[in-house]
Amino acid sequence: MKARVTVTLKPGVLDPQGAAIAQALGGLGFTGVQGVRQGKLIEIDLAEGDAATARAEVEAMCEKLLANTVIETYAVEIA
Amino acid sequence: MKARVTVTLKPGVLDPQGAAIAQALGGLGFTGVQGVRQGKLIEIDLAEGDAATARAEVEAMCEKLLANTVIETYAVEIA
């Protein structure tokens, strides 16, 4: 199965990378940009065939390694 | 409007960051991981109110700044 994990900063956490992108877009003439937040996308190929088990496994991966849950949230999609 | 851009490496392009995650997951005891690819997620708040115009604007941003189209592909979702 394939899992798609998105890791994003929690609201209120400063995102200098997003701010840099917003500024660069403004400099390129994209004037309608009101805000940018950058996150991570992680695609995982799993041997597991059961969707529920795969989701539980990927959530454990997020808690242990993929996301810093103090400042980040994650979402898991199983396909 | 909000736009959600995902930027991923094209198939065949070496992804050392993904390989490092796969190795770290293996070291943590997640034995069913067959492959990991890491990409970027960029969320943009736009002043533009029309979905088609917003999409065209975000695609121009991807071509000019957000993605390196030599090695990366991007997908745009407008919400």
From TrEMBL, chains A, B:
Enzyme's top EC category: ligase
Single annotated GO MF: phosphoribosylformylglycinamidine synthase activity
Entry's localization field: Cytoplasm
Pathway: Purine metabolism; IMP biosynthesis via de novo pathway; 5-amino-1-(5-phospho-D-ribosyl)imidazole from N(2)-formyl-N(1)-(5-phospho-D-ribosyl)glycinamide: step 1/2
Main location: cytoplasm
HAMAP family, per the entry: PurS
Role according to the record: Part of the phosphoribosylformylglycinamidine synthase complex involved in the purines biosynthetic pathway. Catalyzes the ATP-dependent conversion of formylglycinamide ribonucleotide (FGAR) and glutamine to yield formylglycinamidine ribonucleotide (FGAM) and glutamate. The FGAM synthase complex is composed of three subunits. PurQ produces an ammonia molecule by converting glutamine to glutamate. PurL transfers the ammonia molecule to FGAR to form FGAM in an ATP-dependent manner.
The family this protein is said to belong to: Belongs to the PurS family.
Record's protein name: Phosphoribosylformylglycinamidine synthase subunit PurS
Species name: Rubrimonas cliftonensis
Upper classification of the organism: Bacteria, Pseudomonadati, Pseudomonadota, Alphaproteobacteria, Rhodobacterales
Annotated gene: purS
